[in-house]
User: Which sequence fits this backbone?
DNA sequence: ACATTTTTGTTGCAATTGCAACAGATTTCT
DNA sequence: AGAAATCTGTTGCAATTGCAACAAAAATGT
């Protein structure tokens, strides 16, 4: 968003002023929550990082989402009738704010003078989340791994205003994020290097075009 | 959403009570809007259907999104620095409500007693949109065309509470939606029929398992 | 500091998918 | 009703990707 909305500040206010939120801490690897029953739960990450993971019937793991500080996630954003087991695990030591969307709309209205500001700012978080999801879809709909990589590099490069940038994912997670085979991803990265399009040093990528 | 939120009713109220909205009509095939400059524009479909389309540098067309009555879309949901030309065309004769998110937050606050209700209900639309996007990602991250089809059929079947249902897309558009080659999609559909998993009559699918 | 776990890098081969092309069916337009 | 446009169904072949497997490197835990 190109607004001057201060996300961090809002989340802090939320945490302090709203009596309906819970805050919990998680060690790396701990399960934060599972999306099984529909509780309209929404979570905001105060610190740390989490992965939203799906295991399908064949046991294939896919990282459906990766969330970091100030990001919002929760089973309220998922259709009720899904087949898969979704769960969220802490990728790092994390502190997470929990609340129930319906509670916020119904009860909170009456005893919380922060309410109006809350809903407005929550909308901003929703919009940010929609932007993230659209970005992901943008990448997933690219036809080849090469196109996914180039589009992703482009985003990171534009974001850092630099031809040199460091990817937030390692290659294993990047393959999950693209939903492609890791070895196929590595092969394509190598081809991009061999053909002179990029240079690579770990997660640090340099665009040569 | 499993709330009793009446989307249609809200949108009607919005249309009637808010002075900041514009309503325009489009014939099939007309361009509704393009996502070029960042105007924080949000649109809601009053009637009809639209496609959000991307043409990449090679001229490949992808349907990034398809929106129908009561759905929300707009360039506010897309990152500002994208490379692609996105535009929205009317798939059917459509009537569309336009507004600017920032205007709503800033100006509207003071002269519109409908404001608080508006923002709350808008949040519901945002959540619905997030659910749709997550559903799409769910499908796009399936490894094979077969898995995409089976997952999609599953959703449609659960939605209609029936093993028999009619797809909202034709096969050309379905291929776009999955971001796969149309002939490869047809081939896989045929295999599912030959192997006895499904029956098909045009867009009407019967699950045999 | 050392053992253990995770990630990287690589390869051959098989499976899946994309591409191109075209005929027939269906839908849309006038 | 007839013409034009779009969609369906199909195929051979090439390109891309997934799978399996393993060694080396790096990161993590105690």
Assistant:
């Amino acid at each position: 968003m190109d607004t001057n909305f201060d996300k961090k500040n809002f989340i802090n206010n939320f945490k302090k002023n709203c009596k309906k939120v819970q805050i919990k801490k998680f060690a790396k690897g701990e399960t934060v929550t599972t999306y099984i029953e529909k509780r309209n739960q929404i979570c905001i990450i105060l610190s740390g990082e989490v992965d939203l993971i799906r295991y399908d019937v064949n046991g294939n793991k896919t990282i459906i989402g990766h969330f970091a500080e100030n990001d919002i996630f929760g089973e309220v954003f998922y259709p009720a009738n899904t087949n898969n087991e979704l769960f969220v695990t802490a990728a790092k030591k994390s502190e997470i704010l929990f609340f129930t969307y319906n509670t916020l709309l119904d009860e909170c209205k009456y005893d919380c003078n922060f309410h109006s500001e809350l809903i407005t700012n929550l909308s901003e978080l929703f919009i940010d989340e929609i932007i993230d999801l659209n970005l992901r879809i943008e990448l997933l709909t690219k036809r080849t791994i090469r196109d996914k990589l180039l589009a992703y590099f482009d985003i990171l490069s534009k974001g850092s205003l630099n031809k040199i940038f460091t990817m937030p994912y390692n290659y294993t997670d990047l393959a999950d994020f693209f939903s492609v085979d890791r070895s196929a991803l590595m092969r394509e990265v190598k081809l991009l290097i061999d053909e002179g399009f990029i240079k690579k040093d770990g997660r640090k990528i340099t665009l040569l075009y």
In short: The two ends of chain A are 28 Å apart (CA to CA). Chain A has seven helices and eleven strands.
